[in-house]
Specification:
- This protein is mainly beta.
- It has no helices and 13 strands.
- It folds into two domains: 64 residues, no CATH class; 59 residues, no CATH class.
- β4 and β5 form a beta hairpin.
- The two termini are 22 Å apart.
- The relative contact order is 0.24.
């Protein structure tokens, strides 16, 4: 899939903490998208970026940060249903990576952020992923 171009309703269950993060300047984050933290500690949509610090949850709102980068985004931790590129039942319990802000996969590409852990397989093209700050501490290599 491609990165989001509008807000979406992302199915969820077992919701956890809501945390506010300072956003990267000149960045659009849409409600329902996976949010990652870059190497400067700033929130942005999940994407392949060198040295990222992984995903921390799903955006609860859409926010466009200005060039000054003083805006904040509220992110929800929990279990979310995301599209997948190619997963299997055997991947349950394994780390998932954010291909973009709405797609996961079990294999890491170049600089893809750690999204979380697959907790339920739905099909080869979708699964429930636990995403929280604690699941993204180890950087994807």
């Amino acid at each position: 899939m491609a990165a989001l171009s509008a807000a979406r309703l992302t199915k969820s269950r077992s919701l956890g903490r809501k945390i506010s993060y300072l956003m990267k300047a000149s960045t659009q984050i849409y409600a329902g998208s996976m949010v990652m933290i870059d190497t400067n500690g700033l929130a942005q949509p999940a994407n392949a970026e060198a040295g990222n610090n992984g995903c921390v949850g799903v955006a609860t709102e859409s926010v466009l940060s200005t060039s000054s980068g003083n805006e904040r985004i509220v992110v929800q931790e929990g279990i979310f249903l995301f599209a997948a590129t190619s997963i299997a039942q055997g991947n349950v319990g394994e780390r998932m990576f954010g291909i973009d802000d709405q797609t996961i996969d079990e294999t890491t590409g170049s600089n893809t952020p750690l999204a979380g852990v697959l907790v339920e397989f739905v099909s080869s093209t979708s699964g429930w992923v636990y995403i929280a700050l604690g699941t993204s501490i180890s950087k994807a290599t």
